[in-house]
Amino acid sequence: MRVEADRLQACLPDTAVAQPIGQVGGDVSGTHQEESVAVAGLSDAAARALGRRFGQDALFAWTPDASRVLACDNGAVAASGWAASVRAPT
Q1: What pTM, to 2 d.p., does this model score?
Q2: 46 burial class (0-12, 13-18, 19+ CB within 10 angstroms)?
Q3: Which residue has the higher pLDDT, 14 or 23?
Q4: Running DSSP on this structure, what letter comes out for residue 88?
Q5: What gap in Å lies between CA 28 and CA 81, rounded to an integer?
Q6: CB-based contacts of 70: which residues, under 8 Å, 6+ apart?
């Protein structure tokens, strides 16, 4: 997974950072899987361009207000809010 993050990092501006996140994404049928890498510090447009360069159909974008799925080949966005909570230690 570090190899994929390093390959991405070589394509990024100095202000962005690629980090492996230990997750594997895939298609609905389960026939295709690939490692996930988080990239911080990109605009939506730059993230989409990077996604296209690496053959991605879509990518996830997170902000404090929403979780979004951005299509890489057009401006389509699917957005949903989210909530976080802290569990009391047991």
Answers
A1: 0.67
A2: middle
A3: 14
A4: P
A5: 23
A6: 44, 47, 48, 51, 58, 59, 60, 61, 76, 77
